[in-house]
Amino acid sequence: AQSVTQPDIHITVSEGASLELRCNYSYGATPYLFWYVQSPGQGLQLLLKYFSGDTLVQGIKGFEAEFKRSQSSFNLRKPSVHWSDAAEYFCTAGGTSYGKLTFGQGTILTVHP
Amino acid sequence: DVKVTQSSRYLVKRTGEKVFLECVQDMDHENMFWYRQDPGLGLRLIYFSYDVKMKEKGDIPEGYSVSREKKERFSLILESASTNQTSMYLCASSFRGEGSPLHFGNGTRLTVT
Known about the structure:
The structure holds two protein chains of two kinds.
Chain A: E1 3-5, E2 10-14, E3 19-21, E4 24-26, E5 32-38, E6 44-50, E7 56-58, E8 64-68, E9 73-78, E10 87-94, E11 101-103, E12 107-112
Parallel strand pairs in A: 2-12
Antiparallel strand pairs in A: 1-4, 3-9, 5-6, 5-10, 7-8, 8-9, 10-11, 10-12
Chain B: E1 4-6, E2 10-13, E3 19-25, E4 31-38, E5 42-49, E6 56-57, E7 64-70, E8 73-78, E9 87-94, E10 103-104, E11 108-112
Parallel strand pairs in B: 2-11
Antiparallel strand pairs in B: 1-3, 3-8, 4-5, 4-9, 5-6, 7-8, 9-10, 9-11
């Protein structure tokens, strides 16, 4: 069965520190991979996406993610976290033209001043 | 910018009531989706539609139905609301092409008492 796993339910970092959010997927073939962010009381906003090619993808708000086929991972990174990055982050994967996505459980990011 | 509008931000309904959640998108997207979001479970797909009058069950369709009479509008129907349907409901839309990202509404928080 297709699945996406985010091992960390909650991460706390200090402002200015680096960040890495983990994501592992299980799919029959390499899926399309996305990271979304959800601020409190809001819908989900697309941060970045991976389809093929360069395994390091850049997104909005200074985020990047690296696709590693051998590890079935697509981890999200940011070199220096800002207080406004506090939110919930979702890793998702899909593989059909209907656009169905499988979501991870989400990782809540708390940023300390 | 794509706009996905959900008609209500908050709804409170009684057990057994018939509930309608409405979603409208303004980007001529073929695909539309209804997800349910619960803490620790991520987003789970209830139903999706890839064309007018077409619908497909997602992962948790029990207790729900949908209607798509016009391309821009996708309605989620709870035939007889129950307390275990208290949740955040998110609507999303996308183009038909493979890997097209989803665009989300801000969600409807439904409480069934």
